[in-house]
Amino acid sequence: MTRVPSLTELENKQEFLARHIGPDAEQQQQMLSAIGAESLEDMTQKIVPESILLKQGLNVADSRTEVEALAHLRSLADQNQVLKTYIGMGYSNTHVPSVILRNVLENPGWYTAYTPYQPEIAQGRLEAILNFQQLTIDLTGLDLASSSLLDEATAGAEAMGLAKRVSKNKKSNLFFVSDGVHPQTIDVVKTRAVGFGLEVIVGPASDAVNHDVFGAMLSYPASNGQVDDIEQLIADLQAKKAVVTVAADLMSLTVLKSPGEMGADVVFGNSQRFGVPMGFGGPHAAFFATRDKHKRSMPGRIIGVSKDTRGKPALRMAMQTREQHIRREKANSNICTAQVLLANMASFYAVYHGPKGLKNIATRINRLTTILATGLQAKGAELANDTWFDTITLNVGEDKDAILANGVEAGVNFRRDLAGQIGIALDETTTREDVAQLFDIILGTDHGLDVATLDSEVAGFSYADNLERTSEYLTHEVFNSYHSETEMMRYIRRLEGKDLALNHSMISLGSCTMKLNAASEMLPVSWNEFSNMHPFCPQDQAKGYVAMIEELEAWLVNITGYDAICTQPNSGAQGEYAGLLAIQKYHESRGDAHRNVCLIPSSAHGTNPASAQMIGMKVVVTACDSEGNVDMDDLRAKAEELSDSLSCIMITYPSTHGVYEETIGEICDIIHQHGGQVYLDGANMNAQVGLTSPGSIGADVSHLNLHKTFAIPHGGGGPGMGPIGVKAHLAPFVANHSVIDLKGPESGNGAVSAAQYGSASILPISYMYIAMLGNEGLRQSTQMAILNANYLKARLSEHFPILYTGRGGYVAHECIVDLRPLKESSGVTEMDVAKRLNDYGFHAPTMSFPVAGTLMIEPTESESKVEIDRLADALIAIRAEIAKVESGEWNETDNPLHNAPHTMDDIMDPTWNRAYDRELAVFPTQEVRNNKFWPTVNRIDDVYGDRNLHCSCVPTEDYV
Ligand SMILES: *Cc1c(COP(=O)(O)O)cnc(C)c1O
C-alpha cells in the first residue's frame, strides 16, 4: 500500500500563492530556460544588483490560507462596534441599493477595470461617469462638472486653487473660509494654502466681505445644519472680485435652491450619501462643478462627448492638456487615480431612484428632522440653528457628557467636537422609531412626545420659502428609465459589457501593476464592521479598525525598510504631496526653510512635478543618458550648483524605464551630501517587495500605491490608497488630523485628506493580500513579476526592439517596446497598435510613457504563461500586419491597423470594400472568435471633442 501523507504534509499553507501566481512550477521552468536562468534565485542574482539585495528575508507573517486569513480578519472586525451614527460632518448612513452592491461594488467587471484611457473599450464606465457629471451639474446648478475628486476636503483645496487661478483680484493672497465649513475641510485647505503661499482666514460667513480676498468658501448647509440664503453674500463678494466657492450637500440640493442659481462660481462636496458606504472615511467620490468660463482651470478629469470615425457619439476623457501627465508642474492639479468606482455607484443611485425618488428621500429626511427639532424645542431644548435640512445642533452645556453617554449606551453616536453642543444629523436610514429613541435619549423617557402626532401637527418648512428648489433636475432620460430592479440590473450589465476589465483578459499597463484582486481580499470590504463606520466615531469603538491598520503599517514598515507609515493619503499622487510636505517641514525644523528645489529626472511620472509644485517647490529637471538611466554627471552638477537650496530629489525605482539602476545608492549619497532628502516614488514597488526596499537603498520617504502593488483593484480609475513610509527623522512631520488626533505625528500637523486614515475601508484588501502570501509568498510574487516580464521580453525581442535593459540584458518587472522605427518604415503608430490590440481582445499597454512612441508592458505575477503567450502572439501577429504595410501590400490608411478597433458596424457595413477582409478585421485568430470582445465604437476623435466640448449626457436621439 502507498503511504498515506501526514496531516502536516496535506495542509498547504501556501495554497493562496498558487492561486495568486499565474504560471505553475512546470511553466516557471520553461520560462526560466527561455530567459537563460536556472531558478528564480539564479534569475534574481542575474538581474537585481548585488548592492541592493536584502540580506535577510521579510519578517511580516507566515502565510495563511484564504479561510484562515478571513477568520483572523473577522476576529478584528468583531472588535469594531457599529453604532448608529448621527455625527454628520459630511458622512451619512445610506442604503446601498442591493442591485448596485451586487452588480457594481462586488462585481469584477466594474472594480477591476482601469482608468478609461482606451475609450473605445470603456464606453460603459464613461457613460456612468458622464451621468455623475450630469447629476453634479443638475443639482449644483452650474455649467460644467468634473468626473470625481478624492474627497470633499481635497475638493475644497482644489476649489481654492481654482479661485486663485481665475480670480481677478490678482494682488490678494487671502482666502476666506466660513467657520460653517466642515472642520476637516478647513484643515486640508489650510495645509494646501501653505504650499501655495496663500493665507487662510476663518470666520463667520458674513465677515467675508470685510476682507480683501481673491476667493471665499461658504457652506450650504453649514456644518451645524444652518441653511442660510447666501445669494446676496455671493453677489457682494463677487463685486469685490472674489471667486465664491460653496461646499454643498448633494441630497439637500434636491429640495434646496442650488448654489449655482444663487451665483456661486464653484460648488463641491461629497457624493457618499448617494449609496456609497461611509467605510470609516472612504473611499467615496467628491463632486466639483464650476462655470463654463473656468473650464480650462478645472482640476481632475472631465468626461466629454466626441464622435468616432463613423460619426457616432462616443465618450472619452476631455481636455487632458490641463492635467499632470502633460502639463507636469504647470498642471491644474496632481490628481491621477481618483474615485471612479464610487462616482459610478453614486450615479447609479441617482439613475435608480430618479428625480422623484431622490426628492422623496430628501423630503422625508427633512420631515423627520423637523419633527425631531420641533419636539425637542417643545420640551425646552435649545437649538444653535434656526433653519435646517437634515442636521440640528443642540446647545446642551453641562449636559453634554451625560447625553453622549446615554447615546452610546443606547447604541447611538452624536457629533461631539463642538464645545457645549451636540450635533444630530439624520439620513435616509433614519426611521420614526429612531426619532422616538432620540427623544428618549435627550429628554428622558417621560417626554410624552409622539412622532405620529407631531407629524400631523408640525407645519412644513425648516428654511426660508425662497430657498425651496423650483428648478428641474435629472430630466434626462437616463434618470427616468431604470427604476425597476430588472431594468436597473440590465442597464448596469449593458454598460459593463462595453468595458474590458481583468475578468476578460490581461491588462498589461506598465507602471500600473494590474495584478489579481482576489475575491477573498475583496469580501471584507462589504462587511458591516468595515463599511458602516463613521470616521469620527469615538475611536474606542473602532478598535478592530485601528488594530488592523496598525498591523498593516507594521508589515509595510518591514517591507519598505522605513520606520513609520502614514495611511492618510488616498492616492499615490496624494502620497507624493504628503511626503514632500513632511520633507519641507523637516527642513523648516532645522532652520532650512529656504531649501525649495526639487530635482526630478526627465523620465518621471507627471504627478511628481505636479506634486512638487503644490508644495511651492521649484522643479529642476535632470537629464537621462542614452540608456535611460539618470545622467550622473548632470545630477552631480545640479546638486552641486543648487546645494544651498536643494530640498530633495524625486526618483522612481526601478526606474520608469523598468530597469534596476545600479547607481541608485550613489544617487542617494549625492543628495544627502548636499543636505537634500530622497523621495522614492514607490509605484514600482512590485519589483522590490522581499528583494530590496526603498529604506535599505537609502531613500527617506516613499508612497506605496496599494492599488498597484498591494492588490487593491483600480476601480476603473480609483479608488486607491497612497500611504507613505518615512525614516524616523521624518516621522514627526507627517500628516495629522484636526478632528481625530493621531498618535505618531506631531499634533497640529495639517491633514492631507478628509479622513484620518484616508480610504480606510479598502485597507482590508491589502491586509488580506499580505496575510495570505506571507514572507515567502510576497518575495516569490516579486520574482514571478520579474520572470513574467523577462519571459515576455524574450518572446517579443525577436520581433521588436526593446528599449532599455539593465545588466545582462534583463529588465525588471516591465519592458518597453519601441515602435518608433516601425513608424518610420510604415507610418503605423503606437496608437494604431494599441487599438489593434483591442481587436485581438486585449487592453493596450501603457502608451508613450515614459517615452513617446513606445508601449510599456507589465504583465505582473498573476498572469499565466498561457495568457502572456496569447499577448505575445497577438503582438507578433500585429508585427506581421505592419510588415504588409511596410511592403506596400496594404496602403497607409486601408489596413487593419489604421482602422482599428473594428466594430459590428464595420462588418455589417454593406459598402465594405477594404483591402483586407472582415474576418481578419474582427476575428484575427480562432481564439478571438471563441472569446470575442466587441469594442462598441470606432476610433474616437479627440480633437473634435475638445473643440466642441460637451460634458453632459447625450440626448438619446443622437444615438439614432
Ligand atoms: C501610478 C503612478 C503614480 C500616481 O499614483 P496615483 O495613485 O495614480 O495617484 C505616480 N508615479 C508613478 C510612477 C506611477 O506609476
Describe the fold and architecture.
By secondary structure, this protein is an alpha/beta fold. The chain has a domain at 564-762: Aspartate Aminotransferase, domain 2 (3-Layer(aba) Sandwich), CATH 3.40.640. Helix content is 38%, strand content 11%. The protein contains 33 helices and 25 strands. The strands form seven sheets. A seven-stranded mixed sheet has the order 2-8-7-6-5-3-4, sandwiched between helices. The protein has a four-stranded parallel sheet with strand order 17-16-18-19, sandwiched between helices. A four-stranded antiparallel sheet has the order 22-23-25-24. Helix 11 links the parallel strand 5 and strand 6 (243-248). Helix 3 (25-35) packs across helix 26 (763-796) and helix 20 (543-560) runs parallel beside helix 26. The longest helix has 39 residues, at 340-378. The chain is globular and about 85 Å long. The mean pLDDT is 97. Pyridoxal-5'-phosphate binds next to helix 21.
